[in-house]
Amino acid sequence: MHHTMTTHTAPRRWRTAAVAALLALGGTGAALAQTYPDKPLKVVVGFPPGGAADQIARLVSTPLATALGQPVVVENRAGANGNIAGDAVAKSPADGYTLLLSSGGMVSVNPHLSRMSFDPVKDLTPVASAARVLVYLMARPTLEAKNVQELVAYAKAHPGKLTYGSAGSGSSPHLAGEMLKAQTGMFTVHVPYRGAAPALADLMGGQIDYYFDPGIGLAHAKAGRTKLLAVGSLKRSPLFPDVPTLDEAGLKGFDADSVFGFYAPAATPPAVIARLNTEINKILATASVKERITALGGEALPLSPAEFGKRGMDDSQRFGAIIRDRKITAD
Hints:
By secondary structure, this protein is of the alpha/beta class. The chain has helices at 12-25, 28-35, 52-68, 83-90, 105-108, 110-113, 120-123, 148-157, 172-184, 196-204, 218-222, 270-284, 287-295, 305-325; strands spanning 41-45, 72-76, 98-102, 124-133, 136-139, 163-166, 189-192, 210-213, 227-231, 258-265, 298-300. The protein has two domains: 5-134 and 258-325, D-Maltodextrin-Binding Protein, domain 2 (3-Layer(aba) Sandwich), CATH 3.40.190; 138-231, D-Maltodextrin-Binding Protein, domain 2 (3-Layer(aba) Sandwich), CATH 3.40.190. It has a six-stranded mixed β-sheet, with helices on both faces. Strands 7-6-8-5-9 form a five-stranded mixed β-sheet.
């Protein structure tokens, strides 16, 4: 077994960038890592306060500040499906003091939808994954369908009659909705919202028939205000062990999970990334953080930077295919 095996999982461009950064620093990376951090860190979140990305960022940042002995400030810069925050961090100094917390969509979805002002693969480097975020297929409480099969049968018997909401064109709930249509051949009408919260409100109010919920509607599902039909993942949710996955409901291989995690500017010294990865993974292993992420409808997911990078590339292929097949465009 030769010693390079562990790095094979990282995309070549990310490996080359890391090596180039190390050479350019001429060994100062190790010196920097010894004094790092000696000032506050900033975590830029590409989504508004209160959403899953923001909650995960704050959940990790508090213990991270304790572990590093420096304040960690969370800053929300919402817009363009996370691209505004991604651009800001890509253009920040590569010194480990500015991090991005993003949904996986910035790497795996956005490049397929529109021209970006930066290349997330070349201009950012994966630091640590935080959570696997699931989507949950929910119907309005008054919809006749009791399960996925009945929903599909009804939609096929009444083409174009049912509507489904999403958190916006190109969002993971929208892609999940298109995956459902592609795999079943049913025809329903997409209604994009500005975020998941207004879509959920209209679902409970009966204005739309179903949608894929990114975790914010789970308390409502438990209370019977929405009808939870299935999980859009290959694994059941620990919160709802009795609810089948779409894969189990007959949609083989259905997987609309996305991975939220931390990124840094591309030339950030590997020693600094290794330190951040170690600390974040320790935090993700603590019972309290695991429980909070589970309560959000997700699952804590500690990975190495290389594993996190590979996951982004795999997701990019999967989502890119559905975006091309369904001719999905951004708003």
